[in-house]
Amino acid sequence: MRALFWLLDTAINLYVWALIIAAVLSLLLAFNILDSRNRLVWSIADFFYRVTEPVLRPIRRRLPNFNGVDLSPLVLILLLQALRILLAEIQVGLLRNGIGW
């Protein structure tokens, strides 16, 4: 049981880092600090875009426009952190009731 909660927590944590990396890459590409014509840069940026965009797109549709500032990664990170807290509380509750190992 603990292994399942650890795995979920680790997956959420890795996804939060993927969101942060994707946001930083997006900024670096937008300000031409990184060259998107470089195949390695393009491949890395494309990977993070494909990993994060399916989850961010519905949030972007619901958020109001903030003059070009994309707050969807921040909203998603806050939701994922709330999910981590909820999973920790569920794990503690299961351990208190003697269900966990």
From TrEMBL:
A Gene Ontology cellular-component term: membrane
Keyword terms: Membrane, Transmembrane, Transmembrane helix
Taxonomy, superkingdom: Bacteria
Transmembrane among keywords: yes
Annotated TM spans: 12-34, 66-87
Pfam families: CCB3_YggT
Protein name: YggT family protein
